[in-house]
Amino acid sequence: MTFVKPAFRHPDAPINELGRSRQDYEGGLSTLCAGCGHDSVSAAIIDACFELNIEPHKVAKLSGIGCSSKTPAYFLSGSHSFNSVHGRMPSVATGANLANRDLIYIGISGDGDTASIGLGQFAHVVRRNLNMTYIVENNGCYGLTKGQDSATMDTGSPNKKGDINMYSPIDLARLAIEIGATFVGRSFSGDKQQLIPLIKAAISHRGFALLDVVSPCVTFNNHTESTKSYEHMRSANTDMPVDFVPMRQEITATYDSGATCEVCMHDGSVVRLYKQDNDYDIEDRQSALEATSHYAKEGKILTGLLYIQRDSEELHDVLDTARRPLNSMNELQLCPGPRFLDSINAGLR
Amino acid sequence: MKATDTKDPEYFHKVVDCQYACPAHTPVPEYIRLIAAGRYTDAYMVNWESNVFPGILGRTCDRPCEPACRRGRIEDEAVAICRLKRVAADNKDDVKHLLPTVPVEGNGKRVALIGAGPASLTVARDLAPLGYQIDLYDDQPVGGGFMRSQIPAFRLPPEVLNEEVDFILNMGIRQHFQTYISSLKSILQQGYNAVFIGTGAPRGSDLDIPGREACDKSIHVGIDWLASVAFDHVSKIGKRVLVLGGGNTAMDCCRTARRVGGEDVKVVVRSEFARMKASAWEIEDAAGEDIPIINNHVPKEFVHEDGVLKGMRFTVVDVVYDAEGNRELVPTGEEVFFEADDVIIAIGQDNAFPWIERNLGIEFGKWDMPVVDKTTFQSTLKKVFLGGDAAFGPENIITAVAHGHQAAISIDLFLKGERVENRLAPGVTLVSQKMGVHEWSYDSEVSNDDRYPVPHVSKEKALRDRKLEVELGFDIEVAYQEAERCLNCDVQTVFTTSKCIECDACVDICPTDCINFINNDAEPALRQALRRPAKREDQDLYVSTALPQTKRVMVKDEDVCLHCGLCAERCPTGAWDMQRFFYSVTKAGSSCKQSSPSMTSS
Q1: Does residue A175 sit within a domain?
Q2: What class, spelled out in words, does domain B9-97+444-484 have in CATH?
Q3: Range(s) for CATH 3.30.70.20 in chain B?
């Protein structure tokens, strides 16, 4: 068995603006099943961070429990990392983000970690608009415990043994739009052309960004009848291609369709979308909910940037916290002493 | 682009860069794996089967394989293929029982071989076991040809040469040494059924400039002088020696001169350093023996006093290239004089066939060379075949061996009354190396080590003894480390389109970004559209048929594939598999009668 990825890379492999190669953004060799969609998501994160010229040590990657939550070991080995308790990644991310607002937070979770045990935590981190990218690697089953149906499994979709799922699925993207997420995208691990720009846009978004990524479980949920298989995604995927144009780059592509729109991010970069129809307004919650349900009714899965709210107030704005990370403050600033405590207490009387 | 036809043996053959570049197509990765496994005798026999002189070539080969080695495209240096071959030869057990046996009853056909160099010896090796009676003629007292007379003993010890030459001579070859053939007609009159000419390129070029005749006794023609030293006719030279020429013969001359009395030895070359024909490692070894190489100096005259050589005068030139890339040596006006007691001229060598009568039916073409078929090595006189340097001009040992094999096939076909053009396809196998879920039968892990240098004896010791071999060869531990640098390019990445579910696992894991799933296009556009554009046109693209789910195609750029097997390890369906490809050039006497290429696979 090969335990080590060879050190050699393509001699023409590009270098980014930081002078780093893509190799600097890689992690350990995956121990997930061969063909797992999660490995493709990891590769897309590597590409996104490399192309965004992010210093790996400026990133904190957080996860809960599950196959998905193992994946932070397989990308950005130079980043901060916290593998937390099952379903509790949002709390750890919230704490970390409040302590150090200068880092880029990437949460990795699965459909079990987010839609089952972690649904409560998920809902609250969404409504608080914590500034982070939250990626759900959604395969509709509990792969780590041998493939039981998860809460995102579609009604009527059979498991590997042939048993039909009788329960209603939780659509995380629609849920997030409902409860106030400011950036919601859906994608497919097998479509990096869409996934990489979406991750870049999500990282560039200021506020909570959810990416619900269908990422097939090749071992337990990739049979032909499954609605979370590679084959099904390839036939049912109604994709809205996404382009991400960084701030300093000239927009050169030309477009034939009227169904494109451009969204300027707060940092000056531009997300360009090719929508399925002209009436769809991705800055309108109702429109996004209607579009997703319309395609779902037809047995299709709409992917791309589904909803975005620009210029929202993220958690730090709401709480009016200090501008600097706590680790850059001295003891006096962090513990100003009993006089300040007294004045706070007095203000509460 | 059309889907790649992997049933064509040449497709995967080309992926094994070293083997493809070797004129004899020696299965290099195969023997390197055997060396790593400590199976030196087996490694030796794989070599012997293909190139006949592993011990000799492991020291002296021109190594066309090494510039081709994939390793040189992903890092600085190729695998030390040549010196690993020597490891197999140095550490082998007795191989006599493994050599082909010669039938007691011959087939009644007689073949004469003129010249006892590598080409003729290869023909003998291939034909003797088939029952042919072989008569070998050479004007030297022993066999080996230029391998003996041109390559100094400090690079190729006589014991090594003798052993491998004797393997062949002991196959019942009738030896006629010290027999100079002055007439081909006389040979033909002896009733041979076929004649093979492997007489090399025996005439060293001379230099016709003022003073040449007057100081004849101090001026030597390189290849003749090396032969005189090799056969102990010459054992010393003056203290100040000039060697003219920039090829490997010049390097052998200067280094030999340093060992027989030359103290101030210089190599003087007309052209610039970058255009020198000598192998880089031979130039390096000469430099290591304090021999300066002086470039851009064109010989003008030999300076002498009453026939006693004093030195040489040279015109210094600038090398100028015109728009078409034609080179011109433009004198700078400067002239230089170098003192010398002896001068060795090593500026090239030519063929010479004064002994072939021109009325025998052998057509002569350009440069007064016999017309020889490039595939069959047959001359226009059907029973006469040529090979080695005698066929198409000076090349090297491994090319002579390749010629010999092919000429032997032709002679065998010819004497069986079959068409010499009707040659058999190579033997090819393709076998999966999968041992378990994540286990391969080859060392798939890629070594990150730099190329290991071969240790040399100290300069002081080397210069004292003309016959002391300079290179010590790898010891077994270092040989193992060096062998592990081989990427096993013969273990092919084989793709089965129907099994692919397009999960991208191979794309994501591939260290060198070779694998792509994209929409098909014409080759130039496809090369540009890959994740890493495929710039090296001589390296093929492996293109699948349309994939089941998306109708895209898999395109793999073979250029810098590490053959690490990770694509196959991460493939959930076995669409990728690592399969060992064995390609062997068909030898004389193979009995299977196939006319089209074939491939067995499992």
Answers
A1: yes
A2: mainly alpha
A3: 491-601
* Interchain proximity B501–A192, CB inside 8 Å: no
Domain count, chain A: 1
Minimal CA separation from B508 to chain A, in Å: 6
CATH 3.50.50.60 placement within chain B: 100-202+351-415, 204-345
Chain A residues with CB under 8 Å of B501 CB are: 35, 218, 222, 230-231
ipTM confidence: 0.91
Residue of B nearest to A46 (CA): B508
Select from B83, B76, B61, B63 the least CA-distant residue to B17: B63
**Residue closest to B396 by CA, chosen among B230, B282, B473:** B282
Taking CA atoms, B247 is separated from B80, B314, B326, B478, in Å, by 22, 19, 21, 30
CATH code for the domain of A304: 3.40.50.970
CB of B44 within 8 A of CB of B88? yes
A115 inside domain:
yes
- Strands B327-339, B308-321: pairing is antiparallel
In a domain, A124, yes or no: yes
Angle at B493 between CA B492 and CA B498, to 5 degrees: 130
Residues with Cβ within 8 Å of A40's Cβ and at least 6 positions away in sequence, in order, are: A189, A190, A192, A195, A215, B503, B504, B505, B508
CA-angle at A34, arms to A31 and A35, nearest 5°: 125
Tens digits of residue pLDDT in B529-539: 999 999 999 99
Is A245 inside any structural domain? yes
Structural domain boundaries enclosing A76:
22-319
The CATH code belonging to domain B100-202+351-415 is: 3.50.50.60
Under-70 pLDDT residues of chain B: 591-602
Q: Based on the number of CB atoms within 10 Å of its own CB, is B61 exposed (0-12), middle (13-18) or buried (19 or more)? A: buried
Q: Which of A6, A39, A40 sits opposite B564 (nearest CB)?
A: A6
**Starting at the edge strand that comes first in sequence, how are the strands of the sheet with B308-321 ordered?**
B297-305, B308-321, B327-339
SS3 of A46, please?
Answer: helix
SS3 A5: coil
Cα(A137)–Cα(A111) distance, rounded to whole angstroms?
7
Closest-approach residue (CA) in chain A for B568: A34
In terms of DSSP bridges, do strands B194-197 and B110-114 run parallel, antiparallel, or are they unpaired?
Answer: parallel
Q: What pLDDT, in 10s, does the model give residues B240-261? A: 999 999 999 999 999 999 999 9
CATH for the B204-345 domain, from 3.90.1150.150, 3.10.25.10, 3.50.50.60, 3.10.530.10: 3.50.50.60
Alpha carbon distance, N-terminus to C-terminus of chain B: 27
**For residue A252, what pLDDT is reported?**
56
Q: How far apart are CA B103 and CA B454, in angstroms?
A: 42
B261: left (phi over 0), alpha (psi -120 to 50) or beta: left
Architecture (CATH level 2) of domain B491-601: 2-Layer Sandwich (3.30)
Residue B390: Cβ-neighbour burial (10 angstroms; 0-12, 13-18, 19+): buried
By CB neighbour count within 10 A (0-12 exposed, 13-18 middle, 19+ buried), where does A195 fall?
buried
Q: CB distance from A39 to chain B under 8 Å?
A: yes
Residue stretches of chain A with pLDDT short of 50: none
| B505/A36 Cβ within 8 A | yes
- Distances B377 to A171, A267, B371, B411 between C-alpha atoms, Å: 75, 73, 9, 9
**Tens digits of residue pLDDT in B477-525:** 999 999 999 999 999 999 999 999 999 999 999 999 999 999 999 999 9
Strands in B227-296 per DSSP E: 240-244, 264-268, 293-294
For every residue of A113-129, DSSP letters joined together read HHHTTTHHHHHHHHHTT
Say if CB A66 and CB A109 are below 8 A apart: yes
- Dihedral sign (CA B83, B86, B92, B98): positive
